[in-house]
Fold each of these.
Amino acid sequence: MEYQNLLYQVDKHIAFITINRASALNALNQQTLDDLEAALVSAQRDVEVKGIVITGAGEKAFVAGADIKEFIDLSQSDAHSLSQKGHYIFTELIEKSKKPVIAAVNGFALGGGLELAMACHMRFASDQAKLGLPEVSLGLLPGYGGTQRLTRLVGRGRALQMILTADMISADDGFRMGLINEVLPAEGLMDRVIQVLDRIFSRSSTAVASAIDAVNACDDSSRNGYQVEIDHFSNLFLTDDFKEGVDAFLGKRKPNF
Ligand code: CO8
């Protein structure tokens, strides 16, 4: 598969998706969104892939937002379709992914870029990263899920402060408010992300997928999250991984999932 604006590489069970428009600070134009969708579908279909990392090319930016230069030609209905498309990719292909998805936030994560990071299951950031939802400074508001996901992650007061002021915050401030899992020196960022994924890969992938779905149910008003947990928990009793996990514990050995 040829991608115009991203790099896709699979190594040791990890699909690395690198948004590759460094000259535009990796802004998500429509082509990049198409590439991202195709790369995520490939990663989901590839049985060799157990986890996904999303990052940005270059040292300056993760993703500096949707491509503002494309906005000029958009009608209201184009903007609606594009927002809807972004929501589909971020929710269905990232947030609901059965394989863990980690954002390696290597620089500016602004607007649609922070929204992309927030759709991922975890966010690890370089100490140089800057985060923000600057859309109101353009006469807009976040359009790829930011009003909802930021509010869930950091609470209404802090979400509204970030959204209404349009100010950027540091990675350390993002860590303090629960937006960022860990802050690392830039040179150690990817090693740490790989280390975390390897740790997850040593666990039961079936249980991991169920846990992601149960946690997602917390934000899904159409489902009772407690019931989802009960159903997944009991269904896991039917799996080989459960038998292996318990057998390994009782036999005082490492499980072989
Ligand atoms: N879109 C298009 N081009 C961009 C973007 C962007 N979001 N961000 C940076 N660039 C381009 C610049 O135009 C510049 O290009 P050129 O060299 O051709 O002039 C190049 O990247 C380098 O940028 P700067 O020279 O501005 O670099 P600085 O270091 O001076 O500043 C900043 C870095 C602070 C990150 C600055 O570039 C900036 O403020 N960028 C815009 C950030 C922003 O407002 N993002 C939000 C966009 S809106 C959005 O994301 C909505 C999401 C929902 C969409 C829903 C569907 C429609």
Amino acid sequence: MARPKIALIGAGQIGGTLAHLAAMKELGDVVLFDISEGTPQGKALDLAESGPAEGFDAAISGTQDYSDIAGADVCIVTAGVPRKPGMSRDDLLGINLKVMKSVGEGIRDHAPNAFVICITNPLDAMVWALREFSGLPHEKVCGMAGVLDSARFRHFLSLEFDVSMRDVTAFVLGGHGDTMVPLSRYSTVGGVPLPDLVKMGWTTQEKLDAIIQRTRDGGAEIVGLLKTGSAFYAPATAGIEMAEAYLKDQKRLLPCAAYVDGAFGLNGFYVGVPTIIGKGGVERVVNIQLDKTEQAMFDKSVDAVKGLVEACKGIEPALA
Ligand code: APR
């Protein structure tokens, strides 16, 4: 049986890391696409040369030609610009919207059957625009944010409780921005929800609030440290987790930016929600119950994303 084909649109920091992880996990053959002459070819060759020592079987190539992504099973999109210190993800909107147009049309023309995972920011608006430009079915186009935000939350919680990250679960919903909604009630250490751990005296509400804020600022913290780019290891790892769920039909329950039509009070809107990812793409949106405070936070986040979507429509008349 032929190996799956994974097209990585954007061969920058995240794209290169995605290629490395996909090869190491032998998820399939990898094609790196980028407009920057030589970059995808150079990274592909360098990665292929790591194969003999690592012992993976995966063909890795680089291209500037969309026809080389033909027949891709998965496309992961990181094309665009990352933010610099002092910028919010939303500041990237104008530039990256143009990029989504060319990428969406490239996928539409050459890989219309792929499962598409968008990572380019501002995430929720970009995944919506990418879907519009590509015309692919909604369940085959989603965005990576919740897995990353939840991973950051889990990491900070594991430090606070001094337990293995494997025993910490966490849920972050809403838009991938300052209004994201880390859900304490649905986050646990060894199955014990965070509010119970506060009652047990293992941590305090103040400490938990600080961790939630650090999670919201997780991307900016790294931008501030790196100064010349944004996070790439954890975003790539999260993207690969979603791609693997699709390719192996794992039916993983993962938070991702998905098209929500009829759940959470939304009618046809992309935002971060719990989903099941399997061979059908986003097979289900899991409509968990939110309490009043959580729903209010979620609604505020949705409003922030709506503002970005409207801004996209203002810039690109074809989207209106
Ligand atoms: N088509 C294809 N590739 C493009 C295009 C385009 N129209 N425009 C830019 N690129 C490429 C750039 O040449 C660059 O190699 O996208 C790549 C982006 O890589 P980096 O600048 O290293 O950015 P990265 O850190 O990988 O982040 C990419 O993901 O998390 C988000 O905010 C982040 O929007 C940013 C994206």
